Amino acid sequence: MNDGRRYQPRVIAPLERRLQLMTGKGGTGKTTLVAALGLAHASRGRKPLVVELGHRASMAAHFASTEGGGPIGHEPSVVAPGVSAMNIDPERATRELVMRALPGRRFARYALAAAPVRAFLGAAPAVAEVATLDRLRHFVDETDFDPILVDGDATGHAGMLFGVSGVLMGLGASGAVGALMERFSSVFADERIAAVHLVALPTSLAVEETLALRTSLGGGHVALGHTILNRVEGRAARGLRIDRLRAIEESLIALDRIVLSEVALLRVDAERGRRAEVLGKRLEIDGALPIRVEERAPSGLDAIGLLDVGLSLLEGGQAT
């Protein structure tokens, strides 16, 4: 029975979507956050696949202490209870793409063995990116992994990865390559399926750079998810007023140097926490859906610590 109301499709929170990619500058903690999300989704009964791009091979270290943790290769393998992981080798992915694209396996093997073909595949622009997208397409279209969590390379490579589709389509790419590009353009732009999260550290420069990246990726070509402010300090001084801490410091200058040092550290912590709040508001104004992830000691990032980070991320995403 139609009651006159329009059908409203179910809104899927960005951190709950089937395909998610995290990008940001090197050193912002993308790999750690992807591993944490994998553990968090597995704890809620889903079947996550963690995907690492390229030869960095840093993901395995995050699962070293988990049951089943071990080397991560080109094919998915279990690295923790309920979590699978893989590393897309661009050269191997390119060979697999050629094997599927050329008629006949014998002809494809002959072509791949030819030096000119190998030289072309190594030098031609966007070949590795096309092969990477094709490998991701396989796991989206032909497996039941959910979610697929991609640890993207730094921001420059992410822009190139998403720009490949437009460039090739503009050059008139057709056939299998054209179909692949069209498929992934639609997937990464679909807010029911995909989300691209940007990870930044809580500094003014990093936030402004992240907002510029959001603008360059926006325009409906990419389904933008959250901007994650990682390693936010201020936990120890939560709820304390900065002006009150300064006043205590002044009163202790001539009395107790040890206590003065502790109060000074608390004040610095409170100031950093306040700075992160201001930057978070800046992101909110620009619609960047910010989530703050607190700084933790390295000892707090074992499997239990990672799970805690992942669960806090999911809760933050639901609250945004």
Topology:
Layout: E1 19-24, H1 30-43, E2 49-53, E3 77-80, E4 83-88, H2 90-101, H3 105-113, H4 115-123, H5 127-142, E5 148-151, H6 155-170, H7 175-188, E6 194-200, H8 204-217, E7 224-232, H9 242-252, H10 257-285, E8 290-294, H11 303-319
Helix pairs in contact: 1-11, 2-3, 2-5, 5-7, 6-7, 9-10
What does it look like?
This protein is of the alpha/beta class and 320 residues long. The chain has 11 helices and 8 strands. An 8-stranded mixed sheet has the order 3-4-2-5-1-6-7-8, with helices on both faces. Helix 1 crosses helix 11 (303-319) and helix 6 (155-170) crosses helix 7 (175-188). The longest helix has 29 residues, at 257-285. The two termini are 34 Å apart.
Work out the number of β strands: 8
Question: How far is the first residue's CA from the last residue's CA?
Answer: 34 Å
Unreliable spans: 167-172
Strand content: 5-15%
Radius of gyration: 23 Å
Please give the order of strands in the largest beta sheet.
3-4-2-5-1-6-7-8
Oligomer: single chain
